[in-house]
Amino acid sequence: MRHITETLVANGSTRQGRAYVQAIDGQDNPISNSFLWTVSVKRIDARTSERSGKVNGEVVETSTRTVSADGQVLTITTKGLNNGNELQQRPGLYAGKS
Q1: Distance CA 25, CA 91 (A)
Q2: In angstroms, rounded to a whole number, what is the distance separating the alpha carbons of residues 1 and 59?
């Protein structure tokens, strides 16, 4: 699995990003440019995977990614602590090309 995130700050002049390649094997791997220290990804079913982010060996964030039956929509729901230790839940929908 390849994950790329890019954040554009409001004034448009600063970009912040992270990218990593992760096997879907449940093994912890380091991640850079993130408050997370490691991530692991495991397959839940044919259309769903779960990513766990850890700090100091403790899971602080879980992200579930599900592809719709028609393959057109990716739903990502993230639950956990942000780098300010605040509980968060972020749902997201991503439409594919028609």
Answers
A1: 24
A2: 20
pLDDT tens digits, residue range 2-58?
555 544 455 555 555 566 677 889 999 888 777 888 989 999 999 999 999 999 999
Q: How many helices (H) and strands (E) does the chain have?
A: 0, 8
3-class secondary structure, 63: strand
Assigned token pair, 91: 């749902």
Strand ordering across the sheet containing 58-67: 29-30, 38-45, 48-55, 58-67, 73-81, 87-95
pTM of the model: 0.68
Query: How crowded is the C-beta side of 8, counted as CA atoms within 13 Å?
Result: 4
